[in-house]
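Re: the pair you flagged

First of the two:
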Amino acid sequence: MKKKFTTSKKVKGRSYQYFRKGGQYVRLPDDPKREEYDREY
C-alpha cells in the first residue's frame, strides 16, 4: 500500500521505501505491514 509522501528507490538491486520530510528523504522500515513502519511514517 502506497502512502502519501512516500517513494520507492532501488539501490544496488534492492527496493527501499522513503518518506519525504522537509525536502529530505527518510528511510522507512522494510515491511509496511509492521507497526514500526506506521510509527516512522
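Second of the two:
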Amino acid sequence: MVRSPPSPAVAVPVMDAAGFAAAVAAAVAQLQINNPATANVSQNLPSIPKFICDPAKPNGASLWFDQLDSLFRLQPVTDTEKCALVINALDSSTFEKVSRALLPDPIKTCVDYNKLRDKMIGLFEYGMERS
C-alpha cells in the first residue's frame, strides 16, 4: 500500500459570531426590501369584534365601523387586511347578504375597505339618513 505524504495544514478563515449575525441581518433586510410581502409575515393582525346586525340599533353598522376605524388607528393594517378582517367577522347569513351586495365583484377578492364599509352600512342601517 502506497501512502501519500501528508498535505500541508490549510488555514481556515474564521468569522466571529457578531460579524456572522450582522451579515445575516443585512441579508434578511435586503430580502425584505426586494420582497415587501415577506416583511409583514410576522405582523399580528388586530382582533376585531363580530358584526351583529341588530334591527333595534338603526346605526349599528356605522358604530361598528367607527369602532374598527379606531382600532385600525392603533394597529395600522392595509385595506386588503381590513377587508379580510371584516369579512371574517360576519356570520354566514350576513356574509351572503354582503356578498350579493358587492356583485359583480366576488367578496373573496374585495380589497377596497371603503367600498365594503359603504355597502355594509347601506345594507344594515335602518330608518336613518347618513351624512
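Residues 15-42 form one domain.

-B.
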